[in-house]
Amino acid sequence: MKTVRAACIQMRSTTDIAVNVEAASRLIRAAAAEGAEFIATPEMTNLLDIRPEQARSKITLEAEDACLSALSALAGELGITLLIGSLAVGLPDDDRFANRSFLIGPDGRVLARYDKIHMFDVEVGDGQTYRESKAYRAGQNAVLAETPLAQVGMTICYDVRFPHLYRALAQAGAELITVPAAFTRVTGEAHWHVLLRARAIETGSFVLAPAQGGLHEDGRETYGHSLIISPWGEVLAEAKGDAPGIILADLDLDQVAKARARIPALQNDQEIDLTRY
């Protein structure tokens, strides 16, 4: 049996990068002290600010990002595999930013990067209109990362509404799929649990979903309820509410093959021709 102790970090990121780095570091250390080998932080770990013009002066190129540097060094110090759920990073050839997830190895080096593909351009009914594509450039490629612990498929937040991405990752070999998020309270209350459990069940994969939670300085309110879900759709751990903290679960990776054998949906795909009447 191959077992991995995993942790999700729930945060309430502010508009101050130094404050966020300190908060993330403290929670990562606490998770590592509980034996976590794979630790994941939420979307926008370094900076949560819905106002692009206010955020612009704080966002740097990846090579200069203070949060990436600090958390990579921390992963190396603790000897853990760390998913930095996402950082807002500058682009050398675009006025917009990237919403970029980083997978850091236990030596502190970047193993993989993933830029969020699906942009959150919606009106959700909480008085806010979100136009992520105005400030962020969409990624183009799905990412599967091989680590000593597991094969990891990387996604971010709104991606969870596009099941073909998750299916492609699972069919490529993903055992664990990460969904760091900053779900709004309105959409979280309606859809968070059911979407994440569906993605786990459809793919026969473990799903780790570290979340932002609470009322943030930029005025948005996020749902929290970080989740760790089994390949059979069981909730193994959940943050109860929106307060910062950690959740942990032991992942028996043999359960991936067992779930996929019981329901071989990944092998039963059929080409579909659509008939219109």
Q: Overview of this structure, please?
A:
By secondary structure, this protein is α/β, with parallel strands linked by helices. It has one domain (3-262): Carbon-nitrogen hydrolase (Nitrilase/N-carbamoyl-D-aminoacid amidohydrolase). 27% of the residues lie in helices and 29% in strands. The protein contains seven helices and 16 strands. It has helices at 17-33, 52-56, 66-78, 132-135, 163-171, 185-203, 254-262; strands at 3-10, 38-40, 81-91, 94-104, 110-115, 121-123, 129-131, 143-146, 151-154, 176-178, 206-209, 213-215, 221-223, 227-229, 235-238, 245-252. Strands 5-4-3-2-1-16 form a six-stranded mixed sheet. The protein has a six-stranded mixed sheet with strand order 8-9-10-11-14-15, with helices on one face. A two-stranded antiparallel sheet has the order 6-7. The radius of gyration is 18 Å and the shape is globular. It starts with a strand and ends in a 15-residue tail after the last helix. The mean pLDDT is 95.
Fill in the keyword field for this structure.
277 residues; alpha/beta; Nitrilase/N-carbamoyl-D-aminoacid amidohydrolase; six-stranded mixed β-sheet; 7 helices
Mean pLDDT: 95
Low-confidence stretches: none
Structural class label:
alpha/beta
Quaternary organisation: single chain
Which strand order spans the largest sheet, edge to edge or round the barrel? 5-4-3-2-1-16
Instruction: Please report which band the strand proportion falls in: under 5%, 5-15%, 15-25%, 25-35%, 35-45% or over 45%.
Output: 25-35%
- Could you say what the CATH architecture is? 4-Layer Sandwich
- Range of helix content: 25-40%
The dominant shape is globular
What distance lies between the first and last C-alpha atoms, to the nearest angstrom?
Answer: 52 Å
Total domains: 1
β-strand number: 16
Which H/E pattern describes the elements? EHEHHEEEEEHEEHEHEEEEEEH
Radius of gyration based on Cα positions: 18 Å
| CATH level 1 name | Alpha Beta
Tally of helical runs: 7
CATH topology term: Nitrilase/N-carbamoyl-D-aminoacid amidohydrolase
Query: CATH superfamily assignment?
Result: Carbon-nitrogen hydrolase
Query: Biggest β-sheet, characterized?
Result: 6 strands, mixed
